[in-house]
Prior knowledge:
Blueprint lengths: L1 H13 L11 E5 L2 E5 L5 E6 L12 E5 L14 E3 H5 L9 H15 L7 H11 L2 H8 L3 H9 L3 E6 L23 E2 L6 E2 L44 H14 L7 E4 L2 E7 L9 H4 L1 H4 L9 H15 L9 E10 L2 E11 H14 L14 H6 L14 H11 L5 H14 L4 H17 L18 H19 L4 H11 L5 H13 L4 H15 L11 H17 L13
Helix pairs in contact: 1-7, 14-15, 14-17, 14-20, 15-20, 16-17, 16-18, 16-19, 16-20
Amino acid sequence: MILQALTEYYNRKAADPESNIAPEGWEWKEIPFIIVINEEGQFRDFIDTREGEDNKKRAKSFLVPKSEKRTVNIKPFLLWDNVEYCFGASYRNRSDIEERRLSFIKRIENDCLKLSNKVEIKSLLSFLKNDPISEIEKNISNKELWSEAVNSNAFVAFRLEDKPEGLISDIVKNINIKNIENDGICLITGKGGKIARLHPFIKGVRGTNTTGGSIVSFNLNSFKSFGKDQSFNSPITEETAFYYTTALNHLLDKESQNKLYLSDSTIIFWAEKKTDKAFDLESNFKWYIDDPPKDDPDRGIRSIKALYDSHYIGKQVYDEDNRFFILGLSPNSARISVRTWKHGTVTDFSSKIKQHFDDFEIHRGTKDTEFLSLGQILRAVVFEYKSENIPPNLSGKVLESVLDGTPYPETLLNLCINRIRAERHVTRTRAAIIKAYFNRFNRYYNNKEKEVAVSLDRDNKNIGYRLGRLFAVLEKIDEEGGSGTIRERFYSAASTSPSSVFSRLLNLKNHHLAKIENTGRKVNFEKELGEVFAGIDDFPSHLMLKDQGRFAVGYYHQRQNYFISKKDNEPKEV
């Protein structure tokens, strides 16, 4: 299903003249250096295509013939390669360096036999066969640039002096160099063709080898089936292998807007077809999950508001037959593991994502962002808010909950409560996590428990919620008439073992109230305490974990209530 969806995506992009996806047999490759020669095969220039700062230089990408998958065998690329293959130049003492250089020339002669009378091929072969290293070193103006290319074994391509608009490799675009053998049936297309023994590398998954990795790979005897080894276990034609890997590499490209990182996972996503409807999930999905870019901090808010607007307008804004795919990948040595795979309609995913933002809505300060990204949510439950401290499987499980509409993982609640207890700090994000967890859990299992509100709920009788509110009132009294330190000193104990703490806090309360000079303020505090106490019969010796979560939300709601107008929200006489 995954490879089939990727193959269909390649066909969609290939049919779009604006997509710039590589045609069959070709790939976009960053080539840092271009060798310019004349029609007589003489060296003329050495061009550095890289741009940017010294430590962040980026080479220009060119469309070149598809590279070979190399291990220890000698396999030259066609009309471009690294300097070891092109020239036999190396900073390493390789015993096979000359063999590499000759194999590069031989491949050009064999694969470009039909073009042997073309000036581009004649000039290049003449240059390569007549001591090219000596030619370059003798005529190059920037010898340091050449040394850099050799020391880094950089990729190079070739260009004719009087044809600056393209590379010499462009000449093979109009000849058929594809293998036409037929030795099997493709599992993806059902068509006959040459079965790929090795599939092209997939690059761009964070944490994999720099050379790339594979999704389809068999390399041990235990993986063999009926004596078939390597990728013959999973018969896919070379044509289809090119399609799905090219689609994956296109989605994983550095400039791709169909990619995001979530903890240790690389998430890619795409739609079955391009839409002309008012709402486009493919262009907005990244910003429902990812943090907004620093140069456009409102990017996520615009996408989420577009999602809400589409629901208010109605389903006519959706392309309801369009399917949407989400693939989560993670590194596993030379292989790539599939961490998440989701597919469904654009309408269904949009509804689930909107419900997620509804569940996380909670009263916030004027300076808080309107919506929370998944990264903000995950970082809020780990030490020092660092992404590297997020448990490996948590991000994928939370994302699955968002996309499936299922309860958020209990691990998220546990980590959140433990972090609150350790830091004695209930942030907007942490309170929202607890609210979302309870409401989604109760909705999914059709529990009759009272829903956790967006803001202060004076009718909520849950003992944890009430005690959290009480602690917030006592803290506020302490701030105005005492030392203002009870949260640091007593929050953990109050939220886990109320009976051991609250009697002492209530005694301190009387002392702190006496220091408040504003009589009206004292009266309001007494009213608030009376209203909160009306729902408390006794202080329990211990609060279960879920009631500790409700304690945190009650505390947060009560604290936030002090920053809004009291006209319609003051406690009633009790």
